[in-house]
């Protein structure tokens, strides 16, 4: 459309000049010379704006794409962070409901595996809390792989819960802060069972003794079968985060409410609670791919578990062990080192089947080769040449440990250190985990989630190197 035709369509009401508006006539009746000048002016302005747009477009086109890094991702402002316990009405109460705010929604779940898998389960719970804008309440770690007499240990004794909450921008609560651990009250609660939905042929929620720690009597409602990532596939019990989250919102909540199962103690029949949402088991959960912690894309690792930094006291204890092992004084820096995590106990031997133990598990020459690979990479990429190597293993054979020391590799000695008596039965495992994650390199074993998390920590916390060793046959790690 020509400028003249545009001008002829303008009215006093929508785009007239001040003089025309004051005189009360239409632009069509402006004297020809004035209209001609105005047209030239508008054409000039239009041309200028067109050229400017082309220049801006060209500038943008030649700019490199924005890559999200730690430097340009918007991080929560710690100065604006609220008190982590603000979602509670006060100190722990004998009944959990007496300590929850009416204007806040919460979410919880329970653990039922080995310690490292439980760490991943709590991470999944917290990530689900972030997706659904709820406050997560997590329980302690239970000694499923350590021995029942070891007792439970608080999450905050292992990980820095204040750092975690501030970093991810939401308060993370512990059950011991919500309900008094000495309370004898057994409270009824309605929850969803994810395990029933994803376990083909299963008809029970995931069993766990963790419920008794909070004095809860759960009435479960089985989740819909479509929660399973591949419905009906018995070899993969994973569910997607958003599928689970949808049960907390309309219409999926209402559409999938079945008859609740009576609780074990009181026989209570309750629909899933809306104030405190709860699920029986959240280990097998992913955003995209099953066993997602093995991949860099894992949001549960990237947004939650990578911020599970060790509690300061635990880190200091482990640092003391490293100084004594390496014979380093308190005034000296701990030298960069490579840790090896070697799983050799019965829980891994069963996977060797008919292969002899020494042929099944990685050999010393295999570890030597991997050490050399890490040293080469750290020299080239970081300018660091780690010469200290420390072996961490559940092997009980003294002869095997002698062969490790012949290599000049360091070891921890929890018997000589009297670790269990000084700190408790949990601490040999915890100290080893801190040592695994505090070096510049880590060699772990495939299929070990403890190795996996140690490798993720070394890579993300220290920009170090993680090598996973294959095993099962004598030459499994040849490459």
TrEMBL record:
Superkingdom of origin organism: Eukaryota
Keyword entries, A-Z: Membrane, Transmembrane, Transmembrane helix
Ranges that cross the membrane: 41-62
CDD domains xref list: O-FucT_like
Protein's UniProt name: O-fucosyltransferase family protein
């Amino acid at each position: 459309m020509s400028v003249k035709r545009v001008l002829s369509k303008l009215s006093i009401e929508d785009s007239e000049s001040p003089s025309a508006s004051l005189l009360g006539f239409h632009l069509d009746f402006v004297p020809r010379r004035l209209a001609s000048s105005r047209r030239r002016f508008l054409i000039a302005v239009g041309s200028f704006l067109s050229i400017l747009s082309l220049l801006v477009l060209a500038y943008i086109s030649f700019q490199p794409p924005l890559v999200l890094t730690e430097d340009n991702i918007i991080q929560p402002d710690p100065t604006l962070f609220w008190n982590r316990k603000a979602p509670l009405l006060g100190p722990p109460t004998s009944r959990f409901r007496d300590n929850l705010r009416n204007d806040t929604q919460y979410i919880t779940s329970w653990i039922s595996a080995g310690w490292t898998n439980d760490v991943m389960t709590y991470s999944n719970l917290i990530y689900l809390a972030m997706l659904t804008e709820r406050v997560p309440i997590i329980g302690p770690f239970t000694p499923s792989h350590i021995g029942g007499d070891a007792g439970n240990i608080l999450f905050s004794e292992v990980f820095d819960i204040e750092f975690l909450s501030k970093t991810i921008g939401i308060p993370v609560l512990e059950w011991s802060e919500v309900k008094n651990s000495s309370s004898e009250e057994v409270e009824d609660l309605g929850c969803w069972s994810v395990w029933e939905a994803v376990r083909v042929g299963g008809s029970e929620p995931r069993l766990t003794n963790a419920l008794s720690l909070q004095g809860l009597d759960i009435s479960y409602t089985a989740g819909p079968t479509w929660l399973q990532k591949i419905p009906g596939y018995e070899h993969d019990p994973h569910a997607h985060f958003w599928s689970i989250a949808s049960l907390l919102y309309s219409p999926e909540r209402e559409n999938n409410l079945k008859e609740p199962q009576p609780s074990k103690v009181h026989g209570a029949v309750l629909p899933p609670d809306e104030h405190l949402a709860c699920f029986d088991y959240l280990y097998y959960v992913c955003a995209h791919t099953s066993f997602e912690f093995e991949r860099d894309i894992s949001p549960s690792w990237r947004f939650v578990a990578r911020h599970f930094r060790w509690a300061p006291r635990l880190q200091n204890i482990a640092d003391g062990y490293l100084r004594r092992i390496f014979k380093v004084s308190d005034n000296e820096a701990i030298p960069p080192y490579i840790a090896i995590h070697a799983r050799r106990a019965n829980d891994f031997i069963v996977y060797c089947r008919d292969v002899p133990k020494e042929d099944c598990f990685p050999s010393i020459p295999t570890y030597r080769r991997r050490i050399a690979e890490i040293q080469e990479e750290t020299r080239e990429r970081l300018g660091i040449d780690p010469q200290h190597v420390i072996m961490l293993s559940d092997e009980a054979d003294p002869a095997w440990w002698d062969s490790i020391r012949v290599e000049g590799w360091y070891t921890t000695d929890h018997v000589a250190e009297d670790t269990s008596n000084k700190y408790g039965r949990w601490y040999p495992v915890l100290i080893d985990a801190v040592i695994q994650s505090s070096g510049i390199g880590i060699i772990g074993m495939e299929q070990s989630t403890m190795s996996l998390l140690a490798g993720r920590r070394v890579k993300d916390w220290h920009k170090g190197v993680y090598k996973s060793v294959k095993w099962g046959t004598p030459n499994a790690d040849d490459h």
